Amino acid sequence: MKYLIKNLDDKYNNIIITKLKKEGIIIKLQDYGEVELLKIINSQAETEMLINTLLKKWNMELICGQKNILCEKIKKIVEEIVFSEKLPLITFSIYLSKKTGYHYTYLSNIFSEMEGITITQYIIIQKIERVKAMLTIEKLSLEKVVILMKYSSTGHLSRQFKKITGMSPTTFKNKSL
Q1: pTM of the entire structure?
Q2: With 90 as the cut, is the pLDDT of residue 102 above it?
Q3: Which of 98, 115, 171, 172 is the most buried (most CB within 10 A)?
Q4: Across the chain, what does the average pLDDT equal?
Q5: Distance between CA atoms of residues 166 and 169, nearest Å
Q6: Cα separations (Å) of 81 from 40, 91, 102, 122, 147?
Q7: Measuring CA to CA, which residue among 62, 64, 66 is closest to residue 102?
Q8: In the CATH hierarchy, which fold is given to the domain comprising 2-64?
């Protein structure tokens, strides 16, 4: 059975695998936190409960169900793209389709059904989070952020920023100083 570990931090991979093995649970970790249970203890439910108990120590959670797993995978991929040094040259929709192996329309429908927002809205929210960090932590100019985040203009970024945060990027940056 396939699962996904939400908030998986790669530095804990070996610890998680070792702790679960001691409990009689053998897992195989895959891309984006996907997990395959190779050997379980008494029952599926008992195994899931034990795994979740162990994961809570590291602020992680076992996600069950194909739709939930797919949504979490989409989120991880979007965050990976947005918070990487360089945005991909292809569109988010093509990138997500290639990474998941599903048509974008299917991904979009599942994500909207499960999360209550579109993938595009989620991408914008994540991009604005990255912009906030670039403005405050990295102390970049708005013009530099526009270029790095591949916005068409400062106005476009400012409109999205204000829609998400309720204030302009300049006001946000000044309040953070």
Answers
A1: 0.83
A2: yes
A3: 172
A4: 91
A5: 10
A6: 34, 11, 18, 12, 16
A7: 66
A8: Alpha-Beta Plaits (3.30.70)
